[in-house]
Amino acid sequence: MQLSEIGHMANKYWLExxxxxPFVELDAFVVMPNHVHGIIIINKPxxxxxxxxxxxxxxxxxxxxxxxxxxxxQKRFQNQGKGTISSIIGSYKSVLTKNARKIxxxxxxxxxxxxxxxxxxxxxxRIQQYILTNPQNWAKDKLRLKLSS
Length: 149
Hints:
The protein has 7 helices and 2 strands; from the N terminus they run ααββααααα. The chain is an alpha+beta fold.
């Protein structure tokens, strides 16, 4: 895969994730022309093993008057939780967006990301191979074909 300037930035900022989240190890990763794939390994102490994968907090029914004045967005995106997959990916997407827009002002991500908890060795090896071989499959990528049309 020949990386663009933004592609190089995507790679650089991915590799910096453990500097900001020391409990994270990075595994297979690839930058594609319109998306990225990567495996993040969370190595927290046993008493901190719970890993949140939520994209947004569920919306409680407001019971206090001041909560009723908050917007849905404010309620939904309050404190995702330090060290969650959402905070890690959100930080990555944020720094890349800020810097990519200096090159292409219209740079944008999809609004969400797809996450999957890898539960066993078989799944891990299958996903790792998918990521590593993804560039060879780019010619058949459905999103690529939509972008070309």
